User: What shape does this take?
Amino acid sequence: TLTYLRQTIDFATGKLLGCEPNPSRHLSTIEDFIRELKDLNGTPKELLENKELMNLCLPFLKADFEISEKYICKSKIRFNVAATIMSGINDIDVSDDDIRKWGKYFFQQPNIRLVPGDHFFIENNTEQVLEILNRIIKDELLKVNIATTN
Assistant: This one.
């Protein structure tokens, strides 16, 4: 049994929430909001094209956007762990600057990994993302093992 008591690595994706004003997409017209969902490329086409189903889902989807857009981060905590920040190369919602902003929450500069894909790159590149995660975890476990055997 592996007992691992101290967190030494962290993984994050996308942009930081609440650190700067976010667009108010949840206030968009239905047409604009649906266009935004299409642009993000994570909502099934069948759902987007079904007006009755979209009418049922829109309140939940808009509420999800509203939560993330209204959240304000007040924490000044910095973590002393190795961090890996992943993002889709073609994510229209996350800029290079957004990714770099994660650095202010870690004492060590995070490792940034850009993966082929858009906002939902994990879904489209699950195997590659898992390979990255497994490699990082394996390397970290090797460091812990070396440290505990010396």
